[in-house]
């Protein structure tokens, strides 16, 4: 084991002693009774539970076989989730053939950030993760189930499902994605049209043609953003059948993997001989594996928030120092857009997640001994699936990368580090992702231009007032202010400014995106402006220095002047109503900081939000 990985793991174990022990004790108590869970119900309870079960009624009524609770994020709006419409039919049939049963326990809301980017609905996005966690818990609260299958892929959906499922961590849980859509218009071509549109050089019709050619079919968006980073982490944590992440939807192999997941989760319930509850799979080692895999693949900055919340749900306490330290010793071995030109289909074809996991295991950067839900350890997780006729089998991932422009061995990486860095200074703490930022652009000292919304910046750009080097400050975008929407709408404009020769960077207490790219961006800055953080005292012209190499974010203002300044941010009353925002007031009121996971769910006995 790499000494830094070992040290960080030990530090997390020590930090989490109380919370982890409390969590495991609760799971032990909840899972202590023998026999199928449904047999503890009264006759009236049980009769309600199997009233509509059709052919499964006899098995649910009196049998001893396991029953799977399916939690699904299916809807027709998210292309990644639309293929799941028919999964329950397939899963029920597979469960019957394996001697068990399966029921759709419930559905969770699943919004698409791609649809809501730059729109009012985006202010519900981060909070939807906690809502999904609660919906998962409600779905499983019937206590009819011995195992869980979570059907989800995208940004907040997988983290939310895992947070919710961890409350039922005495059961085995397996995640079942749908896979990426086939390649359409390349990400590089799409980005070029977006930038030309931002500069007024392309029409709306040209932009829509490009977007429609890129997002063109069922399946996950093909860039390596938050959704596909989710899939890498689920593999690294051992919560998928091996190699499930990037198999295209609507293929025989995809269906075979869904059937295999059904059969496997029934094998590992407490009713059998190989009990693998979620609470034992998701431990400190699995969380470290997820952080390392995220760094090695140039994954999404959003997981600097989501991973903290997922870990906390398992009683594991991590922070941005852990992520920074692991990222600095993890080689970047995947280049997929926005860190390169390839999409996830290229990444999969060049060696995929199996190649990546094996490289990380051999380099001593991940814990290979995690008890994966598929029945083996992380070494088995690195196998890739294939069909031998109609039989599902696994084989070793390619011994060598099949495209060194996309996937490289750990001994010959694209970069010596993953590129997710914690920055801190007199402006607070934040996250910078440098894997797509040119080395010469990874630090800047320039005057601030302060805005209260991304639209204010875009208006300034259109009027030609954003000239010269600058650090664009967008504040009042944190969890407490307005739910911390992504500011991805800024990407083409900031890129256009950089391409015309300006030195530019972004500083914000908001999120950027899983697709954040080549412009230096210090994001998730905490304390946020709505909490009176230093970012609220910034004024136009202040000299800001962001140095991602040194890990610093500072402003140069005389101490007396700084002390005399008052807190400023946009009028937050405008964020309180419309598009359902009034229903999330309780979350804005008690949400924790970005570094604490941006969650309103974790409240200790002293009422403090962790």
TrEMBL record:
GO BP term, example: Entner-Doudoroff pathway through 6-phosphogluconate
Positions annotated to bind [4Fe-4S] cluster: 154, 221
Listed name of the protein: Phosphogluconate dehydratase
Gene Ontology cellular component list: cytosol
Known cofactor(s): [4Fe-4S] cluster
InterPro entries: 6-phosphgluc_deHydtase (IPR004786), Dihydro-acid_dehy_C (IPR042096), DiOHA_6PGluconate_deHydtase_CS (IPR020558), ILV_EDD_C (IPR056740), ILV_EDD_N (IPR000581), IlvD/EDD_N (IPR037237)
Catalytic activity from the UniProt record: 6-phospho-D-gluconate = 2-dehydro-3-deoxy-6-phospho-D-gluconate + H2O
Top enzyme category: lyase
Keyword annotations from UniProtKB, A to Z: 4Fe-4S, Carbohydrate metabolism, Gluconate utilization, Iron, Iron-sulfur, Lyase, Metal-binding
Highest rank taxon of the organism: Bacteria
GO MF, one annotated term: 4 iron, 4 sulfur cluster binding
The keyword Iron belongs to this UniProt entry's keyword annotation: yes
Domain Dihydroxy-acid/6-phosphogluconate dehydratase C-terminal: 405-597
Gene3D superfamilies for this protein: IlvD/EDD C-terminal domain-like
Pathway annotation: Carbohydrate metabolism; Entner-Doudoroff pathway
Function: Catalyzes the dehydration of 6-phospho-D-gluconate to 2-dehydro-3-deoxy-6-phospho-D-gluconate.
Similarity annotation: Belongs to the IlvD/Edd family.
Enzyme Commission number(s) from the entry: 4.2.1.12
Note accompanying the cofactor annotation: Binds 1 [4Fe-4S] cluster.
All residue ranges annotated as the Dihydroxy-acid/6-phosphogluconate dehydratase N-terminal domain in the record: 67-380
């Amino acid at each position: 084991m790499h000494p830094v990985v070992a040290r960080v793991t030990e530090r997390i174990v020590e930090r989490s002693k109380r919370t982890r022990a409390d969590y495991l004790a609760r799971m032990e108590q909840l899972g202590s009774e023998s026999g199928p869970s449904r047999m503890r119900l009264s006759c009236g309870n049980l009769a309600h539970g199997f009233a509509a079960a059709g052919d499964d009624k006899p098995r649910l009524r009196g049998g001893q076989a396991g029953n799977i609770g399916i939690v699904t994020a299916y809807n027709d709006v998210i292309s990644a989730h639309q293929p799941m419409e028919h999964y329950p039919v397939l899963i029920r049939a597979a469960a019957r053939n394996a001697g068990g049963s399966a029921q759709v326990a419930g559905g969770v809301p699943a919004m698409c950030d791609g649809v809501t980017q730059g729109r009012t609905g985006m202010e519900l996005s981060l909070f939807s993760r906690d809502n999904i966690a609660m919906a998962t818990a409600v779905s499983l609260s019937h206590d009819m189930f011995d195992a869980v299958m979570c059907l989800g892929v995208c940004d907040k959906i997988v983290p939310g499902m895992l947070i919710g499922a961890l409350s039922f961590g005495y059961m085995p849980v397996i995640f079942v994605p749908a896979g990426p859509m086939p390649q359409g218009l390349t990400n590089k071509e799409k980005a070029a049209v977006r930038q030309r549109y931002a500069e007024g050089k392309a029409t709306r019709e040209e932009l829509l043609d490009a977007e429609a050619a890129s997002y063109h079919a069922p399946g996950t968006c093909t860039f390596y953003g938050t959704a596909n980073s989710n899939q890498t982490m689920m593999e690294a944590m051992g919560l998928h059948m091996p190699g499930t992440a990037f198999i295209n939807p609507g293929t025989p192999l995809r269906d075979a993997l869904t059937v295999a997941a059904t059969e496997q989760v029934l094998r590992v319930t407490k009713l059998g001989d190989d009990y693998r509850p979620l609470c034992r799979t998701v431990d400190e080692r699995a969380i470290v594996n997820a952080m390392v895999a995220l760094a090695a693949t140039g994954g999404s900055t959003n997981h600097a928030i989501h991973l903290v919340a997922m870990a906390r749900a398992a009683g594991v306490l991590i922070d941005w120092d852990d992520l920074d330290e692991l990222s600095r010793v993890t080689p970047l071995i995947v280049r997929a857009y926005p860190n390169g030109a390839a999409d996830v289909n290229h990444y999969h074809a060049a060696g995929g997640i199996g190649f990546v996991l094996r490289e990380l295991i051999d380099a001593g950067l991940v814990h290979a001994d995690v008890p994966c839900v598929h029945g083996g350890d992380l070494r088995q997780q690195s196998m890739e699936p294939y069909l031998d006729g109609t039989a599902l089998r696994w084989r070793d991932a390619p011994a060598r990368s099949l495209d060194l422009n996309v996937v490289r061995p750990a001994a010959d990486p694209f970069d010596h580090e993953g590129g997710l860095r914690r920055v801190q200074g007199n402006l607070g703490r934040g996250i910078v992702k440098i894997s797509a930022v040119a080395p010469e652009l990874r630090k800047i000292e320039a005057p601030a231009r302060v805005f209260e919304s991304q639209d204010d910046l875009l208006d300034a750009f259109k009027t030609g007032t954003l000239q010269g080097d600058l650090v664009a400050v967008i504040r009042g975008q944190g969890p407490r202010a307005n739910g911390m929407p992504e500011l991805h709408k800024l990407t083409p404009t900031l890129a256009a400014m950089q391409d015309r020769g300006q030195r530019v960077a972004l500083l914000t207490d908001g999120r950027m995106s899983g697709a954040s790219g080549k412009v230096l961006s210090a994001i998730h800055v905490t304390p946020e402006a709505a909490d009176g953080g230093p970012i609220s005292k910034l004024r136009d012209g202040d000299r800001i220095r962001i140095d991602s190499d040194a890990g610093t974010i500072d402003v140069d203002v005389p101490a007396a002047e700084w002390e005399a300044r008052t807190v400023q941010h946009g009028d937050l009353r405008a964020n309180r109503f419309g598009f359902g925002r009034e229903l999330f007031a309780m979350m804005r009121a008690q949400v924790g900081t970005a570094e604490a996971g941006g969650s309103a769910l974790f409240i200790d006995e002293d009422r403090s939000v962790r």
